């Protein structure tokens, strides 16, 4: 069974200044935008391993992150720490002078088993730019009967980095599950053994 969730999730904002994403979007020459570096670390994406990859789409509007070992589980045989997994990603994007970008949507793909109604679980992500105060993010709570591959789109409020000053783009995602009975799994490991997060970028000119 495969189920899809396309919903605007209630976003949370911590301090920081946020603004709507412009409706009419311009963007720089794709050849001038690229990932200079990316690092990751967390219980769902251990530092120094090859089980996580990140790539930028040809049109420079999407960052895709693939995982192969990002699994939260709860119930018989699981420890308390097994129920919560996270991954912190730090991107350094090369951005041409006079341009800014922000994240407007996050798409989560994976597999969920809420233990036949005996579990609670969610996926969430927050992001921020280094050197600035505050972060924004969104969370999706799975229904009690969730069982199968899922895809859910979350929309976040936009925050923009300072113009023409290189900075790191940071994303912290989390998968959580807790079961009072039965055994459940919120895997970041779908049928093709790949869990994917897709970050949709929006661009605007700045000075």
Automatic annotation (TrEMBL):
InterPro entries per UniProt: DUF4360
Q: Write out the transmembrane intervals.
A: none
Tell me the leader sequence span: 1-18
The UniProt keyword set, sorted, is:
Signal
A Pfam match: DUF4360
Signal found in the keyword field = yes
Instruction: Tell me if Signal is a UniProt keyword of this record.
Output: yes
User: What is the protein name for this chain?
Assistant: Secreted protein
